[in-house]
Specification:
The chain is mainly alpha-helical. The chain has one domain: Orthogonal Bundle (Arp2/3 complex 21 kDa subunit ARPC3). It has six helices and two strands, in the order αββααααα. A two-stranded antiparallel sheet has the order 1-2. The protein is globular, with a radius of gyration of 16 Å.
Length: 163
């Protein structure tokens, strides 16, 4: 059985499984990171960008929001989830028009004022700490965007009837 919806596509069980995975697994990937020159590099953005590529802005918004719940709760910073909603939504909005890497960087640029203002003024973090987060997210987004560029079309072919 197939359904039309806000994504503008028909859904079957494979697509529902993929979307559900892209909503849940960013929470798990957020647990893992590595340090590079004192920066914490994360990979959960890969799944947000992949959701944006496959399901468009709505997929990016859902993956960014639902996929950030663990981090937002664990760090006591609900603004993280909203920032990732912005990141995923704008990546999905731009993705079909300007390509993966420009979309990732443009979405990051749109997210940046939200991240900086909420972390400094609402979460009470120091400017120095927030600036380190900004740099770490830039590096993480570049790595994750490049990974999506390398893998997204193959993954989409596994779940969609795309030639």
């Amino acid at each position: 059985m197939k359904y039309k919806n806000i994504f503008g596509m028909e859904f079957d069980l494979k697509k529902i499984f993929l979307l559900t995975s892209l909503l849940i697994f960013p929470n798990i990937l957020a647990i893992f990171h590595f340090s590079l020159f004192g920066l914490r590099i994360h990979f959960f953005q890969y799944l947000i960008f992949l959701a944006a590529f496959i399901f468009g802005p709505v997929g990016g918004v859902l993956s960014g929001g639902v996929g950030s719940l663990y981090t937002a709760v664990a760090l006591g910073n609900p603004y993280i989830a909203i920032g990732n909603v912005i990141l995923g939504g704008f990546a999905g909005l731009f993705m079909k028009k300007i390509g993966i890497m420009p979309s990732v960087m443009l979405a990051y640029t749109v997210q940046l004022p939200w991240l900086w203002l909420t972390d400094v003024y609402l979460a009470g973090m120091s400017i120095k700490h927030v600036n380190m987060i900004v740099i770490a997210l830039l590096v993480s987004n570049l790595i994750c965007g490049a990974a999506v560029k390398l893998t997204a079309r193959r993954i989409k072919r596994l779940f969609f009837d795309v030639r």
